[in-house]
Amino acid sequence: MLWIKALHIIFVISWFAGLFYLPRLFVNHAMTQDAATQERLSLMEHKLYRFTLPLAVLAIVFGLWLWLGYGIKGGWLHAKLLLVAGLIAYHMYCGKLMRAFAAGKNTHSHVWYRWFNEMPVLVLFAIVILAVVKPF
């Protein structure tokens, strides 16, 4: 099970790297008016989103494998699973935002994206504390 745990951690880190960088691309995209730069950013966003999707799936699969393998229980796990569900929704919403940028229909400012970019950081803090400290 240690290999499964290691793979889970690797894929979670990789998924979070994408979740940290994709909204940062949105910040830059919202700030530019240059068509060539917007097209380049749209391509980068699409490639990053497409790359992080299987990382998310693998992180979740190995997490479920750990859960079933260890038979983990506790209130902390329910809270962690709720946060993971929120991350999945966040990732899917990033896909919606990416498609809006590609279609030229962005409605948010770069300041909004700066705040949006901080949400996965807060979730990461909470998940790590729940998984390590197991406060309840």
Provide the domain count.
Answer: 1
Strand content: under 5%
Along the chain, the helix and strand elements come as HHHH
Query: Span between N and C termini?
Result: 24 Å
Shape: elongated
How would a crystallographer describe the biggest sheet?
none
What is the CA-atom radius of gyration, in angstroms? Answer: 17 Å
Average predicted local confidence, pLDDT:
97
Helix content: over 70%
Counted by DSSP, the helix tally is 4
Poorly predicted regions are: none
Number of strands: 0
Please identify the structural class as seen in this structure: mainly alpha
Question: What would you note in describing this structure?
Answer:
This protein is mainly alpha-helical and 136 residues long. The protein has one domain. The chain has four helices and no strands. Helix 1 packs parallel to helix 3 (75-102) and helix 2 runs antiparallel to helix 3 (75-102). It is elongated, with a radius of gyration of 17 Å. The two termini are 24 Å apart. The mean pLDDT is 97.
Features:
136 residues; mainly alpha; elongated
Secondary structure layout plus pairing:
Elements: H1 2-31, H2 35-70, H3 75-102, H4 110-133
